[in-house]
Amino acid sequence: MVKIVVACGSGVATSETVVASIKTFLEQHQVTGVEVEATDFKQLASVLHNYDVYVWLAKPTPEIQDICNREGIPDVNGVDILTGAKGDKTYLDLVAALLSLRRTA
Fold first, then answer.
1. CA distances (Å), origin 98, targets 40, 43, 61
2. CATH topology of domain 2-94
3. I need a labelling partner for 3 at 20 to 30 A (CA). Which of 83, 93, 95, 99 fits?
């Protein structure tokens, strides 16, 4: 099971919206075996190691980026997922992150 975490300031409104968008995208493309959860940014450093992909809504801090680099966790800009600004291309980075996990497994 691949685990994706989406983090925003409170872990409620914005991150839950992105979680729902990602789940819908995965269902529409018949992708299974992926769990998507939201968390608040304050808890992220202590739980990030439990996830395979990090979707951010505010640019990662140096501490968070260091954890991603050290643990090999791809980080994906979730702002485009939230806004849908790039249309179908919005999810390309997420798909690339999921595919990179497949190659390293």
1. 22, 23, 22
2. Rossmann fold (3.40.50)
3. 83
